[in-house]
Design a protein that fits this description.
Elements (H helix, E strand, L loop, with lengths): L4 E2 L1 H14 L4 E9 L3 E8 L8 E5 L2 E5 L1 H7 L3 E7 L2 E7 L5 E2 L5 E3 L1
Parallel strand pairs: 1-6, 2-5
Antiparallel strand pairs: 2-3, 3-9, 4-5, 6-7, 8-9
Length: 108
């Protein structure tokens, strides 16, 4: 088990999106190379969890992260924030040494 966290705000948003799309309320967070700081976060709905996924749960919604991405997001908290600039999932990642202005990429 990892120390990932999904906030109630993020869980509610995932549940709403999943219900509209007729999918399970499972959010997959993965990390890809790229972005303006070296790594970037990717979000998507998942049909289920893989055997090597780490799972966090909040209000019946699951956050799943693959084993490779977990090294880069261990201890992270996924939130959903709405602001004048728009609404988006936000990752508060203690592993990130620096981030970028857009908040969707980071470096370690």
């Amino acid at each position: 088990m990892s120390n990932l966290a999904l906030t109630p705000s993020a869980a509610a948003r995932v549940a709403a999106i999943a219900a509209r799309q007729g999918k399970p309320a499972i959010l997959r967070l993965s990390v890809d190379g790229g972005g303006c700081s070296g790594f970037q976060y990717k979000f998507g709905l998942a049909d289920g969890a893989a055997a090597d996924d780490s799972i966090a749960e909040c209000d019946g919604v699951r956050l799943v992260v693959d084993a490779v991405s977990l090294d880069l997001v261990q201890g992270a908290r996924v939130d959903f924030v709405e602001s004048l600039g728009g609404a988006a999932f936000k990752v508060d990642n203690p592993q990130a040494a620096s981030g970028c202005g857009c908040g969707s990429s980071f470096s370690v």
